[in-house]
Design brief:
single chain, about 55% helix, four-stranded antiparallel beta sheet
Amino acid sequence: MKNLSSVIRTIGKTLPNLPKEFPKLYSRDPAKFKRRVLRLLSRALFGSEPGRPCLKEVTLAIEMRAQGKTWAQVYPLTIGNYARLSPGTRTRKAYELRNRVRSRESKHAGLRWLRVENSVRIFHKNNSTRIVTPIALSSGSGTVKP
């Protein structure tokens, strides 16, 4: 069984070799290279995003709206027990869902971000879509698919 000291040894062997393995990135800006490596290591250990995890219902609602579905089609699939709720409760839950979707969309200044497997799908204001890999997000370059 591996323990913490073996993890520290492994990291200690790997990290000093990174500048040699990526000389172009390191030579451009060593401090920036260090920040990127630490950010990627942090993401790998603790998850991809700081803060509270996204609500699955809100993510699903954003995906459905991006596909052109109406709110009336979105509510039954994203609000639990929607058919059994009283009309007043339905209205309140629908209002909360719309506000959560609007809040998440406004955080990115007109961009809607969805995590899709190991990439992020970005929906722009003009409804164009592209998929960006984590390398492209962390380094500012990398694979970007339309």
